[in-house]
């Protein structure tokens, strides 16, 4: 291998194990202590509620006859492999991206285990406001959503860094056109050296020519 595993994003794979332990542990406790449909209030607007999801998020394709189990399992495996490759190609110092990838992989594998072992995904978190209830979800779903949010956040941060370090696109020769439009009568602006001097005078110190 051309580089050490510890120097790549794979160094953060331990977080996948943490997510799996927490997710599968919480599901095990629900299966051992709850009957299907049982609800236990935790806090205002938050319940523990045992539900089974045979589809994807928001019970998408839950009533499709069973083929969706293998369909979503394949998607989870594919996404996990792709993100693992991206972690390998990333540097270990790229913390935000690697943490995001690890969270998504951990969540995907947690739900994958449920699909293959039980044939359904165990959900238990019931968030509600008044009579309105959000779709029941689990800690694996939470890890996936947090990971996706971190990727979006990193995208905004990267865009901001690029904009802050963006070089000036004004070229020295563009000054000739600017000077011509001003219609200065002085002959000192008609030569290219003069244009270059004008550019050096008006360009901010962080500008770079091309």
Number of domains as seen in the coordinates: 2
Percent helix range: 40-55%
Shape type? globular
Structural class: alpha+beta
State the strand order across the main sheet.
Answer: 1-2-3-4
**What is the first-to-last residue Cα distance?**
39 Å
- Number-wise, the strands total 4
Overall average pLDDT: 80
Residue share in β-strands: 5-15%
Largest sheet: 4 strands, antiparallel
SSE run: HEEHHEEHHH
Tell me the Rg in angstroms: 28 Å
Account of the 3D structure:
With 210 residues, the chain is an alpha+beta fold. The protein has 2 domains: 5-164, no CATH class; 167-210, no CATH class. It is built from 6 helices and 4 strands, in the order αββααββααα. Strands 1-2-3-4 form a 4-stranded antiparallel beta sheet. The model is unreliable at 185-190 and 202-210 (pLDDT under 50).
